[in-house]
Automatic annotation (TrEMBL):
Keywords, alphabetical: Membrane, Transmembrane, Transmembrane helix
UniProt source species: Massilia phyllostachyos
InterPro entries: RDD (IPR010432)
Transmembrane segments: 46-64, 76-100, 131-151, 183-202
Pfam families: RDD (PF06271)
Protein name: RDD family protein
Principal subcellular localization: membrane
Membrane topology: Multi-pass membrane protein
Length: 365
Protein backbone atom coordinates (compact mmCIF):
# COMPACT_ATOMS: atom_id res chain seq x y z
CA UNK A 1 0.00 0.00 0.00
CA UNK A 2 1.40 3.38 -1.00
CA UNK A 3 2.24 6.00 1.59
CA UNK A 4 1.42 9.65 1.08
CA UNK A 5 3.52 11.28 -1.63
CA UNK A 6 5.75 13.14 0.83
CA UNK A 7 7.91 10.43 2.40
CA UNK A 8 10.65 12.51 3.99
CA UNK A 9 10.10 15.24 6.55
CA UNK A 10 12.47 18.19 7.06
CA UNK A 11 14.67 17.95 10.15
CA UNK A 12 13.06 20.97 11.75
CA UNK A 13 9.62 19.46 11.26
CA UNK A 14 10.73 16.24 12.93
CA UNK A 15 11.96 18.24 15.91
CA UNK A 16 8.68 20.14 16.03
CA UNK A 17 6.80 16.82 15.88
CA UNK A 18 8.77 15.40 18.79
CA UNK A 19 8.19 18.56 20.80
CA UNK A 20 4.49 18.30 20.00
CA UNK A 21 4.44 14.71 21.28
CA UNK A 22 6.13 15.75 24.49
CA UNK A 23 3.72 18.60 25.00
CA UNK A 24 0.64 16.53 24.16
CA UNK A 25 1.44 13.35 26.09
CA UNK A 26 3.99 14.46 28.64
CA UNK A 27 6.65 12.20 27.12
CA UNK A 28 9.59 14.18 28.46
CA UNK A 29 11.62 11.00 28.94
CA UNK A 30 10.73 9.56 25.51
CA UNK A 31 13.61 8.04 23.55
CA UNK A 32 14.13 6.10 20.35
CA UNK A 33 13.12 2.48 20.87
CA UNK A 34 15.98 -0.02 20.95
CA UNK A 35 16.21 -3.04 18.68
CA UNK A 36 15.44 -5.83 21.17
CA UNK A 37 12.31 -4.30 22.75
CA UNK A 38 11.03 -3.64 19.22
CA UNK A 39 11.72 -7.24 18.21
CA UNK A 40 10.03 -8.72 21.27
CA UNK A 41 6.97 -6.48 20.91
CA UNK A 42 6.64 -7.12 17.19
CA UNK A 43 7.10 -10.88 17.56
CA UNK A 44 4.51 -11.05 20.34
CA UNK A 45 1.97 -9.05 18.32
CA UNK A 46 2.53 -11.01 15.12
CA UNK A 47 2.20 -14.34 16.93
CA UNK A 48 -1.12 -13.61 18.55
CA UNK A 49 -2.62 -11.63 15.64
CA UNK A 50 -1.63 -14.32 13.14
CA UNK A 51 -2.82 -17.02 15.55
CA UNK A 52 -6.26 -15.44 15.75
CA UNK A 53 -6.49 -15.17 11.97
CA UNK A 54 -5.27 -18.75 11.46
CA UNK A 55 -7.72 -20.09 14.04
CA UNK A 56 -10.70 -18.32 12.48
CA UNK A 57 -9.79 -19.09 8.87
CA UNK A 58 -8.74 -22.65 9.67
CA UNK A 59 -11.98 -23.40 11.52
CA UNK A 60 -14.09 -21.86 8.74
CA UNK A 61 -12.27 -23.52 5.85
CA UNK A 62 -12.08 -26.91 7.57
CA UNK A 63 -15.88 -26.91 7.79
CA UNK A 64 -16.57 -25.60 4.29
CA UNK A 65 -13.75 -26.51 1.90
CA UNK A 66 -12.86 -30.13 1.03
CA UNK A 67 -9.97 -28.83 -1.08
CA UNK A 68 -8.50 -27.03 1.92
CA UNK A 69 -8.61 -30.20 4.00
CA UNK A 70 -6.88 -32.15 1.24
CA UNK A 71 -4.24 -29.42 1.01
CA UNK A 72 -3.57 -29.78 4.74
CA UNK A 73 -2.79 -33.45 4.12
CA UNK A 74 0.27 -32.46 2.10
CA UNK A 75 3.62 -32.61 3.99
CA UNK A 76 3.87 -28.84 4.51
CA UNK A 77 0.19 -27.94 4.36
CA UNK A 78 -0.16 -26.44 7.84
CA UNK A 79 3.15 -24.57 7.62
CA UNK A 80 2.23 -23.03 4.25
CA UNK A 81 -1.17 -22.09 5.65
CA UNK A 82 0.53 -20.38 8.59
CA UNK A 83 2.76 -18.39 6.21
CA UNK A 84 -0.24 -17.25 4.19
CA UNK A 85 -1.93 -16.03 7.38
CA UNK A 86 0.93 -13.66 8.31
CA UNK A 87 -0.15 -10.76 6.03
CA UNK A 88 -3.73 -11.14 7.29
CA UNK A 89 -2.35 -11.08 10.84
CA UNK A 90 -0.45 -7.89 10.04
CA UNK A 91 -3.66 -6.39 8.68
CA UNK A 92 -5.41 -7.25 11.97
CA UNK A 93 -2.42 -5.72 13.78
CA UNK A 94 -2.94 -2.49 11.83
CA UNK A 95 -6.65 -2.42 12.62
CA UNK A 96 -6.01 -2.95 16.35
CA UNK A 97 -3.40 -0.19 16.36
CA UNK A 98 -5.63 2.22 14.44
CA UNK A 99 -8.64 1.59 16.71
CA UNK A 100 -6.94 1.22 20.10
CA UNK A 101 -3.96 3.49 19.49
CA UNK A 102 -1.45 0.71 20.10
CA UNK A 103 -0.94 -3.05 20.06
CA UNK A 104 -0.64 -5.20 23.22
CA UNK A 105 3.04 -6.02 22.78
CA UNK A 106 4.15 -2.45 22.20
CA UNK A 107 1.86 -1.12 24.92
CA UNK A 108 3.30 -3.47 27.56
CA UNK A 109 6.86 -2.43 26.65
CA UNK A 110 6.06 1.27 26.42
CA UNK A 111 6.54 1.53 22.66
CA UNK A 112 4.50 3.54 20.23
CA UNK A 113 4.65 4.17 16.48
CA UNK A 114 4.15 7.76 15.35
CA UNK A 115 4.86 9.73 12.20
CA UNK A 116 7.86 12.01 12.11
CA UNK A 117 5.61 15.08 12.35
CA UNK A 118 4.08 13.86 15.61
CA UNK A 119 0.85 12.31 14.38
CA UNK A 120 -0.54 8.92 15.20
CA UNK A 121 -0.59 7.15 11.82
CA UNK A 122 -3.91 6.29 10.23
CA UNK A 123 -4.98 2.82 9.16
CA UNK A 124 -3.73 3.23 5.59
CA UNK A 125 -0.31 4.31 6.83
CA UNK A 126 -0.06 1.49 9.37
CA UNK A 127 -1.05 -1.11 6.78
CA UNK A 128 1.64 0.23 4.44
CA UNK A 129 4.24 0.04 7.22
CA UNK A 130 3.17 -3.47 8.22
CA UNK A 131 3.48 -4.68 4.63
CA UNK A 132 7.00 -3.27 4.71
CA UNK A 133 7.64 -5.20 7.92
CA UNK A 134 6.32 -8.35 6.23
CA UNK A 135 8.73 -8.03 3.34
CA UNK A 136 11.83 -6.24 4.62
CA UNK A 137 11.56 -7.48 8.21
CA UNK A 138 10.09 -10.99 8.03
CA UNK A 139 11.12 -11.84 4.45
CA UNK A 140 7.50 -12.91 3.82
CA UNK A 141 7.79 -15.46 6.65
CA UNK A 142 10.54 -17.57 5.06
CA UNK A 143 12.30 -18.97 8.16
CA UNK A 144 15.98 -18.91 7.13
CA UNK A 145 15.78 -15.69 5.14
CA UNK A 146 13.85 -13.85 7.85
CA UNK A 147 16.77 -14.31 10.28
CA UNK A 148 18.99 -12.36 7.87
CA UNK A 149 16.45 -9.62 7.19
CA UNK A 150 15.70 -9.11 10.90
CA UNK A 151 19.43 -9.02 11.68
CA UNK A 152 19.88 -6.40 8.97
CA UNK A 153 17.14 -4.21 10.46
CA UNK A 154 18.66 -4.64 13.93
CA UNK A 155 22.07 -3.48 12.67
CA UNK A 156 20.47 -0.39 11.12
CA UNK A 157 18.89 0.51 14.46
CA UNK A 158 22.18 0.02 16.33
CA UNK A 159 23.88 2.42 13.90
CA UNK A 160 21.22 5.02 14.69
CA UNK A 161 19.47 4.56 11.35
CA UNK A 162 15.74 3.92 11.00
CA UNK A 163 14.49 0.51 9.89
CA UNK A 164 14.07 0.38 6.13
CA UNK A 165 10.28 0.16 6.46
CA UNK A 166 10.26 3.26 8.72
CA UNK A 167 12.59 5.39 6.60
CA UNK A 168 12.21 9.04 7.65
CA UNK A 169 8.43 8.76 7.84
CA UNK A 170 7.83 6.72 11.02
CA UNK A 171 9.35 6.88 14.48
CA UNK A 172 9.18 4.16 17.14
CA UNK A 173 9.40 5.82 20.52
CA UNK A 174 9.88 4.29 23.96
CA UNK A 175 8.81 5.38 27.42
CA UNK A 176 10.24 3.93 30.65
CA UNK A 177 8.19 1.05 32.02
CA UNK A 178 8.42 -0.56 35.43
CA UNK A 179 9.42 -4.11 36.27
CA UNK A 180 5.81 -5.05 36.84
CA UNK A 181 4.86 -4.43 33.20
CA UNK A 182 8.06 -6.04 31.99
CA UNK A 183 7.30 -9.12 34.07
CA UNK A 184 3.75 -9.31 32.76
CA UNK A 185 5.06 -9.08 29.21
CA UNK A 186 7.72 -11.72 29.86
CA UNK A 187 5.14 -14.15 31.25
CA UNK A 188 2.77 -13.46 28.36
CA UNK A 189 5.59 -13.88 25.83
CA UNK A 190 6.73 -17.17 27.36
CA UNK A 191 3.17 -18.50 27.48
CA UNK A 192 2.59 -17.57 23.84
CA UNK A 193 5.95 -19.08 22.87
CA UNK A 194 5.01 -22.36 24.57
CA UNK A 195 1.70 -22.38 22.69
CA UNK A 196 3.57 -21.88 19.40
CA UNK A 197 6.00 -24.69 20.26
CA UNK A 198 3.14 -27.00 21.28
CA UNK A 199 1.21 -26.32 18.08
CA UNK A 200 4.34 -26.93 16.01
CA UNK A 201 4.91 -30.25 17.81
CA UNK A 202 1.29 -31.25 17.17
CA UNK A 203 1.68 -30.31 13.50
CA UNK A 204 4.81 -32.46 13.23
CA UNK A 205 3.03 -35.38 14.88
CA UNK A 206 0.00 -35.00 12.60
CA UNK A 207 2.31 -34.86 9.56
CA UNK A 208 4.04 -38.06 10.63
CA UNK A 209 0.73 -39.83 11.22
CA UNK A 210 -0.64 -38.57 7.90
CA UNK A 211 2.44 -39.76 6.03
CA UNK A 212 2.21 -43.15 7.74
CA UNK A 213 -1.46 -43.54 6.80
CA UNK A 214 -0.92 -42.53 3.17
CA UNK A 215 2.05 -44.89 2.89
CA UNK A 216 0.22 -47.84 4.46
CA UNK A 217 -1.27 -50.67 2.42
CA UNK A 218 -4.98 -51.56 2.35
CA UNK A 219 -5.99 -54.36 4.71
CA UNK A 220 -8.41 -57.26 4.44
CA UNK A 221 -11.53 -57.33 6.61
CA UNK A 222 -13.78 -60.34 6.99
CA UNK A 223 -17.40 -60.11 8.07
CA UNK A 224 -17.50 -62.63 10.96
CA UNK A 225 -21.20 -63.39 10.37
CA UNK A 226 -20.98 -64.16 6.64
CA UNK A 227 -17.31 -65.04 6.14
CA UNK A 228 -17.07 -62.68 3.16
CA UNK A 229 -13.98 -60.53 2.85
CA UNK A 230 -13.29 -57.07 1.43
CA UNK A 231 -10.24 -54.83 1.10
CA UNK A 232 -10.37 -51.67 3.24
CA UNK A 233 -8.31 -48.56 2.44
CA UNK A 234 -5.71 -47.60 5.09
CA UNK A 235 -7.59 -44.37 5.85
CA UNK A 236 -10.05 -46.41 7.93
CA UNK A 237 -9.38 -47.56 11.50
CA UNK A 238 -11.44 -50.59 12.55
CA UNK A 239 -12.87 -51.36 16.01
CA UNK A 240 -15.68 -53.44 17.46
CA UNK A 241 -18.12 -52.51 20.21
CA UNK A 242 -21.20 -54.05 21.82
CA UNK A 243 -24.28 -51.92 22.39
CA UNK A 244 -26.70 -52.15 25.32
CA UNK A 245 -28.81 -54.71 23.44
CA UNK A 246 -25.83 -57.00 22.92
CA UNK A 247 -25.47 -56.32 19.20
CA UNK A 248 -21.92 -56.27 17.86
CA UNK A 249 -21.05 -52.99 16.14
CA UNK A 250 -18.32 -52.98 13.51
CA UNK A 251 -17.04 -49.39 13.46
CA UNK A 252 -14.74 -47.86 10.85
CA UNK A 253 -13.34 -44.40 11.65
CA UNK A 254 -11.70 -42.21 8.99
CA UNK A 255 -8.15 -41.25 10.02
CA UNK A 256 -8.94 -37.53 10.41
CA UNK A 257 -12.18 -38.47 12.24
CA UNK A 258 -14.33 -36.66 9.69
CA UNK A 259 -16.38 -39.80 9.09
CA UNK A 260 -17.53 -42.93 10.92
CA UNK A 261 -19.23 -45.92 9.25
CA UNK A 262 -20.99 -48.57 11.34
CA UNK A 263 -22.17 -52.07 10.35
CA UNK A 264 -24.44 -54.15 12.59
CA UNK A 265 -26.96 -57.01 12.43
CA UNK A 266 -30.10 -57.74 14.45
CA UNK A 267 -33.02 -60.13 14.12
CA UNK A 268 -36.17 -58.10 13.43
CA UNK A 269 -38.61 -60.81 14.58
CA UNK A 270 -42.20 -60.43 13.43
CA UNK A 271 -41.83 -56.74 12.62
CA UNK A 272 -41.65 -55.65 9.01
CA UNK A 273 -38.43 -53.99 7.88
CA UNK A 274 -40.21 -50.62 7.91
CA UNK A 275 -41.51 -51.13 11.46
CA UNK A 276 -38.12 -52.31 12.69
CA UNK A 277 -36.34 -49.39 11.00
CA UNK A 278 -38.64 -46.76 12.48
CA UNK A 279 -38.20 -48.30 15.93
CA UNK A 280 -34.42 -48.25 15.37
CA UNK A 281 -34.57 -44.56 14.42
CA UNK A 282 -36.40 -43.87 17.68
CA UNK A 283 -33.74 -45.79 19.63
CA UNK A 284 -31.08 -43.66 17.98
CA UNK A 285 -32.95 -40.41 18.67
CA UNK A 286 -30.48 -39.36 21.36
CA UNK A 287 -27.67 -39.61 18.78
CA UNK A 288 -29.26 -38.41 15.56
CA UNK A 289 -32.42 -36.80 14.22
CA UNK A 290 -33.69 -39.15 11.50
CA UNK A 291 -37.05 -37.85 10.29
CA UNK A 292 -38.99 -39.52 7.50
CA UNK A 293 -37.35 -42.44 5.76
CA UNK A 294 -38.56 -44.49 2.83
CA UNK A 295 -38.76 -48.05 1.60
CA UNK A 296 -36.88 -48.99 -1.55
CA UNK A 297 -35.33 -52.03 -3.17
CA UNK A 298 -31.59 -52.45 -2.65
CA UNK A 299 -29.72 -55.23 -4.44
CA UNK A 300 -32.93 -57.15 -4.80
CA UNK A 301 -33.77 -56.91 -1.07
CA UNK A 302 -36.29 -54.91 0.95
CA UNK A 303 -34.58 -51.79 2.29
CA UNK A 304 -35.35 -48.68 4.34
CA UNK A 305 -33.16 -45.57 4.05
CA UNK A 306 -33.14 -42.21 5.83
CA UNK A 307 -30.87 -39.17 5.99
CA UNK A 308 -30.64 -36.81 8.95
CA UNK A 309 -28.26 -34.92 11.21
CA UNK A 310 -26.30 -35.62 14.36
CA UNK A 311 -28.23 -34.60 17.47
CA UNK A 312 -25.41 -32.58 19.04
CA UNK A 313 -23.31 -31.40 16.11
CA UNK A 314 -23.45 -30.76 12.41
CA UNK A 315 -22.55 -34.22 11.09
CA UNK A 316 -24.64 -35.65 8.28
CA UNK A 317 -26.12 -39.07 9.10
CA UNK A 318 -27.26 -41.65 6.57
CA UNK A 319 -28.84 -44.94 7.67
CA UNK A 320 -29.76 -47.88 5.49
CA UNK A 321 -31.42 -51.06 6.80
CA UNK A 322 -31.66 -54.15 4.58
CA UNK A 323 -33.51 -57.40 5.27
CA UNK A 324 -31.37 -60.45 4.54
CA UNK A 325 -32.49 -63.97 5.53
CA UNK A 326 -34.64 -62.77 8.42
CA UNK A 327 -32.01 -60.38 9.77
CA UNK A 328 -31.96 -56.59 9.68
CA UNK A 329 -28.53 -55.40 8.61
CA UNK A 330 -27.74 -51.73 8.94
CA UNK A 331 -24.98 -49.46 7.72
CA UNK A 332 -24.91 -45.99 9.26
CA UNK A 333 -22.50 -43.31 8.04
CA UNK A 334 -21.79 -40.07 9.94
CA UNK A 335 -19.83 -37.35 8.14
CA UNK A 336 -18.62 -34.08 9.64
CA UNK A 337 -18.68 -31.02 7.37
CA UNK A 338 -17.59 -30.63 4.71
CA UNK A 339 -19.14 -33.99 3.84
CA UNK A 340 -17.71 -33.81 0.32
CA UNK A 341 -14.25 -34.35 1.84
CA UNK A 342 -15.14 -37.94 2.75
CA UNK A 343 -17.96 -38.69 0.27
CA UNK A 344 -15.86 -40.94 -1.99
CA UNK A 345 -14.26 -42.84 0.91
CA UNK A 346 -17.60 -43.36 2.64
CA UNK A 347 -19.42 -44.46 -0.50
CA UNK A 348 -16.71 -47.00 -1.36
CA UNK A 349 -16.67 -48.43 2.18
CA UNK A 350 -20.47 -48.63 2.37
CA UNK A 351 -20.64 -50.57 -0.88
CA UNK A 352 -17.84 -52.85 0.30
CA UNK A 353 -19.60 -53.59 3.58
CA UNK A 354 -22.83 -54.40 1.75
CA UNK A 355 -20.80 -56.74 -0.47
CA UNK A 356 -20.09 -58.80 2.65
CA UNK A 357 -23.81 -58.97 3.43
CA UNK A 358 -25.63 -59.16 0.09
CA UNK A 359 -23.29 -59.14 -2.92
CA UNK A 360 -24.22 -57.13 -5.97
CA UNK A 361 -25.74 -58.89 -8.94
CA UNK A 362 -23.12 -60.76 -10.91
CA UNK A 363 -21.23 -61.78 -7.78
CA UNK A 364 -21.57 -65.14 -6.05
CA UNK A 365 -23.69 -65.20 -2.93
Amino acid sequence: MERPAQKSVPHASRLDGRALLKARFGLSSETAARAWPRWFARTFDVWWHTGLVATFLGFTLCRTSPGFLRWLETPFGWKLFGLTCIPAGLLLDAIVQAVAGNTPGKAMLGLRVVTADGRFPGLREIVGRNMGVWGAGFAFGLPAVSLLTMARQGLRLRRGEPASYDDDYFLVRARPVGWCRKTVFALAFIALFLVVVLLDAMDRQDSREMAAVLAASPYAWTNPDTGRQITVPPQWRYETFTDEDGAVLHVFTEHTEHAVVLLAREAHGDATIAQYSRALAERLANQAALPGGQLEEFRGKASWVVTGEEKEGAARVRLRVVEVHGNAWRVMAMQSPPAAYTDDLVEALEQGLWDTVTPRQGRSD
